[in-house]
Amino acid sequence: MTQKPVLWITRKLSDATLERASRDYDVIINHKDGLHTADDIIAMSPKVDAILPCHSEIFDEAVSAKLDSRVKIIANHSVGVDHCDLVALAARGIVVTNTPDVLSDATADIAMLLMLGAARRCVEGDRLMRTGSWDFWSPSFMVGKQVSGARLGIIGMGRVGQVMARRARGFGMDVHYYNRKRLPEDFEQGATYHETVEDLLIVSDFLSLHCPSTPETTGMMNSDRFAMLPDGAVFVNTARGALVDENALLAALDSGKVSAAGLDCFVTEPGGNSAFSKYENLFMLPHVGSATRATRDAMGFRALDNLDAYYKGNTPRDALT
Ligand code: 8YV
């Protein structure tokens, strides 16, 4: 009997994923689900042929250079690969894959939730109810911002951005977008294309980020860009914390330029930004965009499909290197 490849699964994935992986590979599973340091990753590498990590394991240039040559494939359980230095890993001949498509619905749902929750002052309302301090009602009480009829700007019209556009259209929003490349007309479905981020910002009553974090997009939402939004805009980020200068966002909230924001991603994760906690017009979640049972299974299976293809001698469908 030929030996199965040794696969290191760095985090506690869904039961269905772990079951299938254990059937097909000689698995090392992180049942305790703790985080791994660079040293942990390097120390594990001589013992494994393949790694199935999450975005919580960092394969930067230094780690990539020190990985044992036994590691041949990193099959990520994530669509974002900003935790992987693709150039350095490719230079080591390591195949890297991700899990696009399967998390677009769940992530766009969370973007809608954050957008609506921020616009309709959900944190404030929830606190009033929980603390028993709801003692007043008036037509001018807790008035929020209406999404229907408003303009939604989407930065990054990839898979998640397109699902977000569809959801927003269902809520009667007028969709505008910026993308490095304009989409074919049938994919646009009536959305208005803007050739620059700046052109998009000035029409975005609501703004939602759906682009990857790269050296070019890091800190893209800075104070100059927040200043270009219409007064009282609502800002949503379900992509990556690194896209946002968090101090610039705080200043925009303080000035009222941004009336509310919904955030699922932070510069520091886990943990977030303690300066955010006093803002009741910030609706925040701890990076759970793709956290549904169905999506976690689909992500795990997509990563395993990529591994299976590699071990059958084929190019994995989601190969990035
Ligand atoms: C995941 C994500 O929760 O896929 C991504 O890029 O940010 C999240 O949806 C996480 O990466 C799981 O590994």
Summarize the structure.
The chain is an alpha/beta fold. It has helices at residues 15-24, 38-44, 61-66, 86-91, 104-119, 122-130, 159-170, 185-188, 197-201, 223-227, 246-255, 293-311; strands spanning 6-9, 26-29, 50-52, 73-75, 95-97, 151-155, 174-178, 192-193, 206-209, 233-237, 258-263, 282-284.
Describe this structure in words.
The two termini are 31 Å apart. This protein is of the alpha/beta class. Helix 11 (246-255) links the parallel strand 10 (233-237) and strand 11 (258-263). The chain contains twelve helices and twelve strands. The chain folds into two domains: 6-102 and 293-311, NAD(P)-binding Rossmann-like Domain (Rossmann fold, 3-Layer(aba) Sandwich), CATH 3.40.50; 104-284, Rossmann fold (3-Layer(aba) Sandwich), CATH 3.40.50.720. 34% of the residues lie in helices and 15% in strands. The longest helix is centred in the last third of the chain and has 19 residues, at 293-311. The strands form two sheets. It has a seven-stranded parallel sheet with strand order 8-7-6-9-10-11-12. The model has no long low-confidence stretch (mean pLDDT 98). Bound molecules: 2-keto-D-gluconic acid. 2-keto-D-gluconic acid binds at residues 54-55, 77-80, 103, 289-290.
Total beta strands: 12
The CATH homologous superfamily of the largest domain is called NAD(P)-binding Rossmann-like Domain
Q: Tell me the domain tally.
A: 2
Through-space gap between termini: 31 Å
How much of the sequence is in beta strands?
5-15%
* CATH-derived architecture of the largest domain: 3-Layer(aba) Sandwich
**Describe the biggest sheet?**
7 strands, parallel
Global geometry: globular
Q: Which percent range fits the helix content?
A: 25-40%
User: What are the segments in which pLDDT stays under 50 over at least 5 consecutive residues?
Assistant: none
Count of discrete alpha- or pi-helical segments spanning 4 or more residues: 12
The whole-number mean of residue pLDDT values reads 98
